[in-house]
Amino acid sequence: MACVVGSSGKITGCEVSRSLNAEFGLDQAALAAAAQWEFKPGRKAGKPVAVRITIEMTFMLKTTPFLLLLWEKWASASSVPFPPR
User: Fold this and answer.
1) Which of 3, 30, 63, 76 has its CA 20 to 30 A from that of 24?
2) Distances (CA, A) of 64 to 7, 14, 20, 48, 58
């Protein structure tokens, strides 16, 4: 994600650079998580300034009955075998 950290240290804007998977809500989850973070703002001549940063997120999904159902739905629409191996 490409984000702007404002002079207050809070994220003032983020956009997804490379989609994790918009269909299952991972992009939205990443944006929501980043919006909660607070940083030390960048400084120029000793004063806080907004800076652009890149955030890389990794999600680890645990297998649950719900995720298996989602996988089955996705796999039935593609050539991927079910269950995943």
Assistant:
1) 3
2) 41, 30, 19, 45, 19
Q: Mean pLDDT in each 10-residue stretch from start to end of the chain (85 residues)?
A: 95 88 81 92 96 88 75 70 54
Q: Phi, psi at residue 39, to the nearest 5°?
A: -120, 165
Per the structure block, which two tokens stand in for 39?
Answer: 């940083």
